[in-house]
Amino acid sequence: MLTLYGQELRSRLLLGTARYPSPAALEDAVRSSATEIVTVSLRRETAGGRQGGAFFDLIRSLGVHVLPNTAGCHSVAEAVLTAKMAREVFGTNWIKLEVIGHQDTLQPDVFGLVEAARILCAEGFEVFPYTTDDLVVGEHLVEAGCKVLMPWCAPIGSAMGPQNIPALRAMRAHFPDMPLIVDAGIGRPSHATTVMELGFDAVLLNTAVAGATKPALMASAFARAIDAGRDAFEAGMLEPRDFAVPSTPVIGKAVFA
Amino acid sequence: MRVLIKGAGVGGLTLAHELAGRGVEVAVAERQPDFGGAASWFAGGMLAPWCERESAEETVLTRGIGAIDWWDRALPGEVSRNGTLVVAPPRDVGELKRFASRTSGFEWLGGEAIARLEPALAGRFREALFFPGEAHLDPRRALVLLRQKLVENGVAFIGEADNSSDSDLIADCSGASRIGAIAGLRGVRGEMLYLQTGEVELSRPVRLIHPRIPLYIVPRGNGLFMCGATMIETDDGGPIAARSLMELLNAAYALHPAFGEARLLETGTGVRPAFADNLPRVMRAGNTITLNGLYRHGFLLSPALAEEAANLALTRNLKGDAA
After folding, report:
1. Which of A63, A82, B156, B258 could cross-link A70 (Cys pair, CB 3.0–4.6 Å)?
2. What's the confidence (pLDDT) of residue B263?
């Protein structure tokens, strides 16, 4: 069972809600993956105008936890303001904190991220920071009050899958008791299995599902891949070795050499 | 039989044309005589069922294919059958493959073939998808001309005054104004702009693959280009957002740098009415037929929807008369 800010969850898949062919397709994907947390961007869906509306109603009606995000925010002030708006709109202290530093790579501005995390944690938010795999940044986020870390494994939407396995391993080893969620860059279910096998606690996806030809089928494929990776991690995997090892004991058999 | 159609956007006018063509006495109630409230006034006017299949259900393709001939018959000379060109900036070329894997009815073009089709784009793109069966029209001309044709054919255009009592049937085609009144109907905001430049000539709509929004530039003739359109989940119809303006202009500039020198003539916002599956519906309750939810497919799907609504109006009414 995964616990995030005191909330127990059966599913280890967090699903983004952007760029589906239709809200109906999004709903199908949520159902077929049995995800319990969806993230929703406040900024993108309101155009700076009035909030609410049918799309947010639909998100609320899914009956899953809503993790609002600050996607598209490029400054601390913007992210903090968006987080406060999100708290009003969705009535939750949860916030997926994104402070984007670079337009092209959507790489997090880790300096702004730590600063915004400190402000929001002090104001009672439960912050899910979108960060890199840098250990020191992670430490600063934990010191700022974050009780979850969400490192990328490749740039947002890139579908490249884990680019730096040793860094992800190091992160897992460095934060053994902190829930770690791989937040960006997953393209296919095997990528998700890989990071779950490394011991990550959950995976957050959007484009890989929303951009699939059949989003609901892909969502369920990911849910199974994530469960498989988690089960493998808990079951304990073999370490690779250089020589063959017979799976049947050979003691007692005649040796022809 | 007399039918009062509420709403004079593309849905209402198309249905009026369909019913009038079948000998029905039609009146159209329009809230604003200048199409200002209609999402279709801000449409791209692309008749592009194959391209739309990239993100839309199969039914948008099957029901949309007939729209090209429908508009050609309704407004001879207004439809340009030059196809659609889909291009991607060099770093997003992989996205063209994804677009291709989800669509049909296209051919791959190399740089030379692109230059033959659109000389203005020579040397700018190495690969493109060409959808030869597609077409486009100028939605504003089409709305004005269709309304004019309906007037000539005896269709009465009235203000909002409610004289529904002397109609046999009401057909509600009032689009986004029904958000909140029709269960499940929501608004999807679309922002667009008009550019004018003498330095670029295009013969067909060009779509530029973009990570977030389906961007297109449609030539309107005389150096006028329509550039659209954002897709934002809100029914806020207020002025264009700065970021949307930047993204649309960036796309135009990426397509051809000469757009950087173009005049920005107009920005606009339309609220597209849509149901949860982004597919339109025709419904009947008593003597009211509702046609709504055309989403971003007003010109593409209204002919098929108008036919469906007209069939519903006439068959049910015959049964009613017989009873």
Report:
1. A82
2. 97
Tokens 């309107």 found at = B220
- Residues of B in Cβ contact (< 8 Å) with A213: 101-102
- Identify whether the C-beta of residue A25 lies closer than 8 Å to the C-beta of residue A240: no
Q: Check if the beta carbon of residue A28 is closer than 8 Å to that of residue A46.
A: no
Phi and psi, residue A58, nearest 5°? -65, -45
Report the catalytic residues of A.
96
Task: Please judge whether A22 and B278 are an interchain contact, meaning their C-beta atoms are less than 8 angstroms apart.
Answer: yes
ipTM value > 0.85: no
The long-range contacts involving A172-175, CB below 8 angstroms and separated by at least 24 positions, are A172/A198, A172/A199, A172/A200, A174/A135, A174/A138, A175/A138, A175/A142, A175/A149
Mean pLDDT of A104-115: 92
- Residue B316, burial from CB neighbour count under 10 angstroms (0-12, 13-18, 19+): middle
SS3 B312: helix
Run of H or E residues at B226: strand B224-228
Give me the long-range contacts of B209-216 (CB less than 8 A, separation at least 24): B209/B86, B209/B87, B209/B88, B209/B89, B209/B92, B209/B95, B209/B96, B209/B99, B210/B92, B210/B247, B210/B251, B211/A157, B211/B92, B211/B95, B212/A19, B212/B247, B213/B247, B214/B54, B214/B55, B215/B247, B215/B248, B215/B251, B216/B44, B216/B46
Closest CA to A73 of B243, B229, B246, B235: B243
How deeply is A247 buried, as exposed, middle or buried, from its count of CB atoms within 10 A (0-12, 13-18, 19+)?
A: exposed
Interface check for B278 against chain A (CB to CB < 8 A): the answer is: yes
The model's pTM is 0.87
Q: What is the pLDDT of residue A104?
A: 76
Amino acid type, A253: K
Structure tokens at A189: 């279910």
* Average pLDDT per consecutive 10 residues, chain B (323 residues; last block may be shorter): 94 97 94 84 96 94 97 97 93 88 96 96 94 97 96 91 76 93 93 96 94 84 94 90 91 93 96 96 94 97 97 72 40
Q: From its phi and psi, is residue A151 left (phi > 0), alpha (psi between -120 and 50) or beta?
A: beta
Chain A, window 198-217: residues with a beta carbon less than 8 angstroms from a chain B beta carbon: 211, 213
Q: In this structure, what token pair is assigned to residue A133?
A: 């795999």
